[in-house]
Amino acid sequence: MKQYIPRSLEIVIHRAAREFPVVILTGPRQSGKTTLLNHLFSQSHRYLSLDPPDIRAAAVNDPRGFLEMYSPPIIFDECQYAPQLFPYIKAHVDKNRETCGQFLLPGSQNLQLLEPITESLVGRAAILKLFPFSQREAIGNIHQTLPWEGEERECVDSPSYVELWKSMLRGYYPELVANPSRDIRLWHSSYVQTYLERDVRSLRQIGDLTQFQNFVRALAARSAQLLQITDLARDLGLSVNTIKAWLSVMEATYQIVIVRPYFANIGKRLVKTPKIYFTDVGILCYLTGLHDFEHAAAGPMGGAIFETAVLSELWKTMTHQGIEPRLYFWRTSAGSEVDFLVEHHGKLIPIEVKLSATPNPSMATGIRSLRRDMGNKIGCGYVVHPGTIRLPLGSETTAIPFADL
After folding, report:
1. Which runs of consecutive H residues, i.e. helices, occur in 301-357?
2. How many CA atoms lie within 13 A of 306 on its CB side?
3. Residue 267 structural domain
4. Which parts of the chain have pLDDT scores under 50?
5. 336 and which of 38, 302, 351, 369 could share a cystine (Cβ 3.0–4.6 Å)?
């Protein structure tokens, strides 16, 4: 029996199940949704997957009879395969409105899942998202609170530079975290193929999966860069509308995050093009052909890989607290930039990402420029690096190791 690794979303799910009749749990395939719900609710809920064709057909053809046979409390896995159930779930919930946690519905496709929910279960369902492990979940200290201020010191809980890059190369999908001996190239290859054959084809009528796979690899090579759709379409020989449609598929299946620039009326010309990031850095490394950590760390993709890892960590940490991430970047046409701005308690927290494990004050130049432009709207800033040292870098800016995110 596999050892269960705790998830930081557990508290949020328990609260949602106490307050809503229906809890929807979405996220990328293999992110641990079913494992999490079965672990938390195995004593109180039955479990049924709608993935097998015969079970799915029964739910689609006779949803009323199906719900009478499989009455709540129940976990319906892969619920996006039977959207016909949602109006009948609504009717059942409306008859028993005071009973919370009746239906727990994990599913891996955002577009297919949320459209019928929007129509049928407004006000009756909590919608949560589960991504692969964050770094803190993976190393088992999700309840630890680290201090943000202080003098220079080495953070003993931070993984070494080599350990960090090895973990990023593997990525943070539960199967790879829980089984360190798994062949990562074989696992990633299988994951990508399953994603193409099941999620992509079920969302869009894409005839040539090879062409879509070329698009995915081209997109991976642009992770942490400005998303120039016209250039991408030209390079692949595709129309702009096709690229936009395929981007929506990638976003709907939680494989990418699109980060938009922060706009402020400060009298400067700001870049308006969004940036693209993959949600799992291990998948990113696989798609870009990186198979050893030395090449990943020292090669031309090193900076993009580490910036993607930081974005993924920020995104997962907020999402797994039940918070919708409000995360941006800042860049002027003159070249000043800050990698990430996080809205937090009325302030913008600037975060710079640097590949060097030896922090120095020059790494905070972008944050200082932003602070001059926007004044007291900017909170304490952080420079994230892959080393183990915490170091003040001047007024209100601290260099922190990746693990401290």
Report:
1. 302-319
2. 27
3. 135-404
4. 143-150
5. 369
